[in-house]
């Protein structure tokens, strides 16, 4: 039975127990076997899935209209209660099923009330006998009581009302407030007790309200501020159900109390008076002022719970029409709830709940006539959340609410057109929402102002740097539609930079100024002055935010170079630019250095800014630290002050014979390789050192960092061969090594090499050996990302004698890596090719491997992969076709024996 029970449990987990239990047998004759099975299970301790499914089956059978008091000895009713009560204190799913059984059992009209009384007494005793209450027993007891009150008759609840409240008092006495699940069931029970108090129609018609009702409502109101969201949601639903049964005057009192909870801990002087009154006229300015109120002192839990309660009230039409304006004021404020806490912010749950309220409002009865005047304002703020909120869940929730308003009210300006662009999937990617959806919506003036205002006030000052970057780019796109607003926005941003010392605010303002300068180059000179006015003490800090400010300042200075005509600027301005860029070039962050290099390239004709830096770098190269050497290598490629000397220094960075080359960091060698392609000096020497860089095998804790140098040299060689006049012998020699790069283990390196090889082959196909054959293989470079395909088409290129050595050496390095994929795909491709080619090719392969092993016998990074490649060929009996070549390898093996650091099983394989 266990496999069946486990399968049924999976079904209940996916579709819910209510649906699955309908298909279980529910005949009278099933009761006794089920009881017997459960009684036996308690002694044998079967898997919990079997107990759970059996109890679910029993919960369906106890609903059968059959007198369960029949039977010899103990009645069926008593047996069901006794065996089910055993599982109420369990910790697993069997507790849930036991609660369902007991709830349905006690609700039966033929069940004596003494049994329910006995259960309540037993529960209270069990909870108070131990010094510390069992959370599992408490949960099971409350679950059972909630199941009973869910559909119980009013007389049953009235009879045991005091006893149930006494059990609830026991929980409060024993302080079970730490357990969120227990509190949730307490809240559900309080709400259901209140509903039963209101169930008597006679009392309601007479206008008489039970005195205990106020206590239940107060408990639910307090639960709206509980830390667990499940408790808050249960309290919100319970409070709304109660309000739906109350007279209109009492409903309004509850709604007013909910709105007053939102105003707690907010200074009264900072709130508009309309937010606290029942004025029925909606004012956009009042709403905007309330959204700007300082909310740092309020509780996110309270706001979330109140918004959930308001949403449930709106769904049940429990909000009076004269309260709509005040509700909308606070809901739209909650839609902007994003309070900074430490390094992040809180308020996601509040914004989500506010979307739920707006979604409910759109579905309210007579929404078009009642809420029509508020629709434009709600649409504007929803559009802001749809496109500019940081959280994807909020963007999608806002999109759903906007869709309801468009579909049900017909009062949203351009609603259908906006929905086409901002559906559930479109607003998912944050970049697409900011840079595509927001500018599209801003084409309508009714939304443009509120989007720009939010970007200026929130996006540019957001704690997340990615939001500031996207916000600045979006401002540029929107302003490009109407450049008349660019000047006023620029003045506001420059004033923000001058007044504040907050790095976050300065960074956002500078990014926006960069976007404005790109839209209108006339604004760039004036905007660049804001970058130069940033205090040096802020920029010199070693924090990430200071680096971001410095990067943005460099971008702004670069944009100002062309319209300024740098030869006519003042010495003071030029000196400030020089200080800023030199400070940026000394930073370790690569992004900051790249921005500074772009700025220096824009100022490359200026003596003080660019030329002085290059001369100083050439004269003091050996004294510069690693970060400054990397920056200097980048600058030398864009500012040719002393081209021959610069080229010689950069070549020395890649030349293995240079005295300081081995001490340079990988990043510096990459920068040198990239800069050599820009300096049109000494092409033959440049090709020689770049060809050396193709064989860089540097590794560190980051892995194969030499691949960065190989890629940089490969890219530079591609530019050299396409843009310069190079001697044919140098071209052919470097070209052969470039083709060897196609055998690299790393997918991205293979693809990049394929693109470069194809670009060079397109230009020099006739001048290169077998150029057309190589071009045919790399016709689609992106296909080389697939390793099985790549090696299957690349390994046969070793049949070309001119490329055999280069391809073989790279392939051996790939096979010798620790990647299982490389051994499986590259190694198998080599074996398949070696078993099909003529003997002469196999002879050359073995000889090449032997010679390379002899030449690098002291370099494990080269020697060990060669031995692994040889062992792979031996395992597949390739050597039997040329046994005399294998005999040559014994000399190599003799040199290997006794060396430390080389696995002995590899050369040992040569003896097989």
From TrEMBL:
Tagged with keyword Chaperone: yes
Keywords on record: Chaperone
Chaperone as UniProt keyword: yes
Any one GO biological process: microtubule cytoskeleton organization
Coiled-coil intervals, chain numbering: none
SUPFAM superfamilies listed in its UniProt record: ARM repeat
GO molecular function: beta-tubulin binding; GTPase activator activity
Annotated Tubulin-folding cofactor D C-terminal domain residues: 737-880
Residue ranges annotated for the Tubulin-folding cofactor D ARM repeats domain, each copy included: 209-264, 299-416
InterPro entries: ARM-like, ARM-type_fold, ARM_TBCD_2nd, TBCD, TBCD_C
Pfam families: ARM_TBCD, ARM_TBCD_2nd, TFCD_C
UniProt protein name: Uncharacterized protein
């Amino acid at each position: 039975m266990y496999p069946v029970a486990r399968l049924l449990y999976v079904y209940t987990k996916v579709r819910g127990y209510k649906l699955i239990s309908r298909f279980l047998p529910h005949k009278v004759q099933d009761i006794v076997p089920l009881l017997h099975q459960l009684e036996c299970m308690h002694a044998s301790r079967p898997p919990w899935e079997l107990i759970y499914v059996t109890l679910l089956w029993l919960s369906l059978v106890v609903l059968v209209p059959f007198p369960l008091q029949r039977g010899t000895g103990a009645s069926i009713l008593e047996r069901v209660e006794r065996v089910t009560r055993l599982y109420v204190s369990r910790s697993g799913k069997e507790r849930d099923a036991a609660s369902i059984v007991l709830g349905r059992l006690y609700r039966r009209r033929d069940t004596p009330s003494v049994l329910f009384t006995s259960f309540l007494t037993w529960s209270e005793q069990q909870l108070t006998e131990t010094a510390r209450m069992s959370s599992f027993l408490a949960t099971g007891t409350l679950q059972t009581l909630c199941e009973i009150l869910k559909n119980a008759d009013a007389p049953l609840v009235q009879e045991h009302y005091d006893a149930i409240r006494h059990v609830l008092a026991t929980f409060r006495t024993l302080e079970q407030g730490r357990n969120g699940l227990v509190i949730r069931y307490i809240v559900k029970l309080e709400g259901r007790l209140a509903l039963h108090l209101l169930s008597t129609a006679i009392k309601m018609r007479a206008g008489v309200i039970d005195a205990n009702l106020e206590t239940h409502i107060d408990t639910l109101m307090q639960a709206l501020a509980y830390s667990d969201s499940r408790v808050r949601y249960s309290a919100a639903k319970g409070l709304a159900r109660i309000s739906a049964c109350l007279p209109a005057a009492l409903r309004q009192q509850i709604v007013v109390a909910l709105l007053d909870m939102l105003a707690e801990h907010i200074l009264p002087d900072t709130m508009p008076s309309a937010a606290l009154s029942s004025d029925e006229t909606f004012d956009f300015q009042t709403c905007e002022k309330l959204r700007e109120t300082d909310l740092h002192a309020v509780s996110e839990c309270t706001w979330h719970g109140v918004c959930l309660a308001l949403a449930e009230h709106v769904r049940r039409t429990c909000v009076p029409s004269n309260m709509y304006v005040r509700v909308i004021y606070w809901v739209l404020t909650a839609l902007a709830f994003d309070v900074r806490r430490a390094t992040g912010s809180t308020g996601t749950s509040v914004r989500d709940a506010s979307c739920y309220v707006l979604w409910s409002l759109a579905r309210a009865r007579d929404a078009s006539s009642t809420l029509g005047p508020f629709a434009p304002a709600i649409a504007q703020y929803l559009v802001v959340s749809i496109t500019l909120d940081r959280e994807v869940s909020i963007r999608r929730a806002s999109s759903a609410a906007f869709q309801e308003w468009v579909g049900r009210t017909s009062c949203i300006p351009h609603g259908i057109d906006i929905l086409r662009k901002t559906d559930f999937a479109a607003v998912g990617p944050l970049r697409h929402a900011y840079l595509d959806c927001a500018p599209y919506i801003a084409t309508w003036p009714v939304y443009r102002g509120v989007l720009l205002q939010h970007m200026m006030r929130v996006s540019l000052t957001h704690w997340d740097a990615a939001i500031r970057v996207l916000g600045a780019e979006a401002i540029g796109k929107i302003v490009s539609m109407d450049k008349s607003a660019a000047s006023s926005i620029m003045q506001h941003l420059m004033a923000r930079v001058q007044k504040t010392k907050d790095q976050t605010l300065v960074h956002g303002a500078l990014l926006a100024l960069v976007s404005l300068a790109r839209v209108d180059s006339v604004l760039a000179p004036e905007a660049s002055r804001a970058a130069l006015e940033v205090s040096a003490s802020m920029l010199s800090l070693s924090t990430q935010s200071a680096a971001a400010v410095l990067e943005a300042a460099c971008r702004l200075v670069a944009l100002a170079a062309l319209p300024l005509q740098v030869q006519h600027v003042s010495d003071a301005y030029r000196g400030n630019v020089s200080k800023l860029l030199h400070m940026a070039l000394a930073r370790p962050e690569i992004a900051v250095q790249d921005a500074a290099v772009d700025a220096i390239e824009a100022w490359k004709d200026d003596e003080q800014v660019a030329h002085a830096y290059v001369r100083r770098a050439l004269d003091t190269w050996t004294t510069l630290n690693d970060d400054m050497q990397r920056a200097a290598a980048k600058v030398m490629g864009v500012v040719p002050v002393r081209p021959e000397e610069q080229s010689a220094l950069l070549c020395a960075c890649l030349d293995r014979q240079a005295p300081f080359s081995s001490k340079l960091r990988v990043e510096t060698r990459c920068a040198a390789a990239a800069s050599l392609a820009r300096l049109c000096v000494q092409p033959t020497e440049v090709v020689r050192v770049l060809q050396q860089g193709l064989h860089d095998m540097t590794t560190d804790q980051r892995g194969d960092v030499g691949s960065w140098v190989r890629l940089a040299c490969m890219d530079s060689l591609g530019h050299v061969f396409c843009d310069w006049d190079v001697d044919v012998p140098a071209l052919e020699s470097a070209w052969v090594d470039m083709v060897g790069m196609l055998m690299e283990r790393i997918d991205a390196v293979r693809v990049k090499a394929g693109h470069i090889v194809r670009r060079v082959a397109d230009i020099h196909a006739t001048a290169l050996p077998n150029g057309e054959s190589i071009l045919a293989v790399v016709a689609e470079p992106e296909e080389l990302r697939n390793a099985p395909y790549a090696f299957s088409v690349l390994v046969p290129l070793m049949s070309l004698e001119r490329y055999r050595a280069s391809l073989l050496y790279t392939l051996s390095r790939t096979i010798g890596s620790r990647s299982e994929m490389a051994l499986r795909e590259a190694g198998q491709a080599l074996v398949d090719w070696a078993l099909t080619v003529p003997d002469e090719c196999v002879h050359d392969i073995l000889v090449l491997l032997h010679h390379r092993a002899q030449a690098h016998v002291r370099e494990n990074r080269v020697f060990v992969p060669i031995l692994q490649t040889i062992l792979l060929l031996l395992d597949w009996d390739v050597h039997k076709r040329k046994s005399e070549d294998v005999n040559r390898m014994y000399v190599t093996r003799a040199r290997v024996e006794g060396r430390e650091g080389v696995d002995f099983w590899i050369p040992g394989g040569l003896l097989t």
